[in-house]
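User: Here's a structure from my thesis project, written as structure tokens. My advisor, Dr. K., wants to see whether a designed sequence matches the one we expressed. Can you design one independently, without my sequence as a hint?
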């Protein structure tokens, strides 16, 4: 779960520098990963 958080932070910085060059594709991949790895946190 921490990896996802750091990834999103790094991702935001990257997209800002790259001017949303590949943001939609990356968002799609991240969303799919989130859905696949959606496990209950307890």
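Assistant: Designed independently from the structure alone:
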């Amino acid at each position: 779960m921490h990896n996802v958080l750091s990834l999103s932070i790094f991702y935001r910085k990257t997209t800002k520098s790259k001017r949303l060059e590949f943001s939609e594709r990356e968002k799609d991949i991240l969303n799919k990963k989130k859905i696949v790895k959606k496990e209950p946190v307890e």
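When you compare it with your expressed construct, this may help: The two ends are 12 Å apart (CA to CA).
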